[in-house]
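[SOLVED] Predicted holo structure with zinc ion

Edit: marking solved, answer below. Original request kept for reference. I posted the sequence and ligand SMILES and asked for the 3D complex as structure tokens.
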Amino acid sequence: MNSAGIVLGIETSCDETGVGIVRISADGVPELLANEIASSVEEHARFGGVVPEVASRAHLQAMVPAVQRALATAGITGRDVDAVAVTAGPGLAGALLVGVAAAKAYAAAWGVPLYGVNHLAAHVAVDTVQHGPLPPALALLVSGGHSSLLAVPDLAGPVTPLGATIDDAAGEAFDKVARLLGLPFPGGPHVDRAAKEGDPAAVRFPRGLTGPRDAPFDFSFSGLKTAVARHVEALQRAGTPVPVADVAASFQEAVVDVLTAKTVRAAREHGMETVLLGGGVAANSRLRVLAQERCDAAGLTLRVPRPVLCTDNGAMVAALGAHLLRAGATPSPLDLPADSSLPVTEVLVG
Amino acid sequence: MLVLALDTATPAVTAGVVRLDPDGAVAELAARVVHDGRKHGELLMPGVLGACGDADVTLREIEAVVVGAGPGPFTGLRVGMVTAASLGDALGIPVHGVCSLDAIAADAVGDGIDGNLLVATDARRREVYWAAYDAEARRLTGPTVERPDALAERIPGLGLAAAAGSLVEQFGLPVRGPEAPTPRGLVAAAADLLGSGAEPGPLEPLYLRRPDAVPPGERKPVTA
Ligand SMILES: [Zn+2]
């Protein structure tokens, strides 16, 4: 394989300190060499959500050891790295800043280009390390921090946002409902597990923004969360035990029903034959099953990276950086800012 | 020995190249200082490369890094810390953290001082970070974070002859020395460590405050 380069990617937009290393061939096939993750999730559990200052402190402690582990896992040294990529946004401002500062230092010390990249575009790019080059795709990115539908004609080119949540992110809704049901943080895996024993048709929860006059590709999960709270409180007031599995399954069904219906519709309307899922909620088992059913029915190809690549990680940043390096993109300057609200249209921060 | 010195514990984004001689003499070859307390992340690495250029050295010729470990407002402080740690790792050179107030003291006692020295910096939220030093810049107490009026009550017992740093005019002491750590002061504060060739200790930021976060209370019902 004729190598176009090796890229080290750094991700610190939320509570995971991720360092990944990807080698890309001259014909654009990426290979994952390392994906080291240090998570501060347990430090946030008692607060019921990610505390930015706690996450930022953890990033500072974890950063250099994560880079060292990634290089060791890949069996290379810093001298073998051809570029450094880093999440420049969107994300938690103070958390992003740690990764961006580290990336600048490594790039300058190794004398290689720096790519400040978009976190959402990186979620899309990571799929290529598992499934190979990506044709034009419609991407659904769902996590505790984002819920977006994106049209991605080309990984190294511009991304078109089609829709996003207008209130809570999908993962946030899972966290809040989990808390309501007495399940631990983060809520996603626990709701998923509880739902396996429940009836998804037990309660007909509302499907947000699915009326004929609603924005076709935007999401809303705040009303759903409130509906679940009302349902649970009514049971509690009546002294009836809450059927946790049924409520979890019915809530989860309402979320994944809307997500998959809008995704398939967006793919059709934009002439995309490939659908891609990413973000932590893409690890949800019911979302994977329903997305597969609906894509099959619509004649669409579904691509879902394995769970460790769906949640935030450094490999995704390295993967996007590798595609940019191969495409000959102009590197970011060393005064690159961290931008907590970086728009998804900006894949590479120049 | 060529030393790169960084500090982001105050609104001054500081980078410099300093030569430390075997006899402990410290010569500042170049310094880049920009005052913008909200742009540490943007300004620091360009400052590092600018200082190297001014001193006519490359990063690969640097033999050690000294970084101000605070105390300082957290977000900015971390920029200097992680930059120093990453540069040290990438270049394979030691990184020493020093208390940023020690670096100010090292400069402020320079011309001799007849008594002890107070060093304080802005901790925001109407508080100051402070420490007290003897005439040889050895720290006597601190670093601490507290309100200026609480510090003012301690001052009669500290034997102070002067003050340095920022927000110190209010204490009625002669003010001298820099408002923020200089590259020269940072390396002077770490000179013994650097000269000894000892392995640096772990790089720990001096936050002095816990994160603002409280576990949630009982959930409020949505139905009254
Ligand atoms: Zn993400």
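OP edit: Chain A touches chain B through 40 residues (CB under 8 Å). Thanks to everyone who chimed in.
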